[in-house]
Design a protein that fits this description.
The chain has 192 residues and is mainly α. The protein has nine helices and no strands.
Length: 192
């Protein structure tokens, strides 16, 4: 993500040779697919989508699409990067709204996840809309996407920490219930 942002704000040519910059640009579709692929796997795990079969199936569809889109739309005989960008944008929308749905279904750990993905949704929407000529925000604020993804990364780190705290709290409660059950059983054995 950092390398992608360095490229987008035109800092990459200052840090790397022209060959590296050219290679990076030539593989940009692969990078987008890898980001969708890895974010899908991460989101499925973080949001525990196995508890939501329809949502989980759609995440699996995005994983499948991420694997086949580069050979389909990134080849020399059929080059259509807009299809991959549209798929990535749909993924960001779907991921954000899945998080919102799961949060309102009672899963506290999704709250910071959703906030992080809202920032990412804003940033990626601006990149995509800018790349197809619908807006020109990136000319006025070239570092905007860098700021938004930095906020997103910070919020995802906090979400992970928050999830860890919630799991730790749940474990402490279940350990307390188990200890009380064991003590009750000991008392029953003493009475016999």
């Amino acid at each position: 993500v950092v390398v992608q942002q360095l490229s987008y704000v035109s800092v990459m040519p200052l840090l790397y040779s022209q060959n590296v910059v050219d290679f990076f640009h030539a593989t940009s579709l692969i990078q987008v697919s890898l980001m969708v692929f890895s974010a899908s796997i991460y989101s499925r795990s973080f949001l525990q989508t196995s508890n939501y079969p329809k949502i989980d199936r759609i995440f699996k569809l995005f994983i499948f699409l991420a694997l086949i889109e580069v050979p389909l739309f990134g080849s020399s005989w059929f080059y259509l990067p807009e299809a991959l960008l549209l798929s990535a944008l749909l993924f960001v929308f779907f991921n954000t709204f899945s998080g919102i749905y799961i949060f309102f279904d009672g899963h506290k750990q999704a709250r910071l996840f959703v906030l992080a993905w809202i920032f990412l949704l804003i940033g990626y929407s601006l990149i995509i809309f800018d790349s197809v000529g619908l807006v020109s925000v990136m000319q006025n604020i070239p570092n905007l996407i860098l700021y938004l993804t930095a906020i997103e990364a910070l919020l995802l780190s906090l979400a992970f920490s928050d999830r860890y705290s919630l799991i730790k709290e749940e474990k402490a409660k279940s350990d307390q219930v188990l200890l009380e059950t064991i003590n009750t059983q000991k008392d029953l054995i003493k009475l016999e």
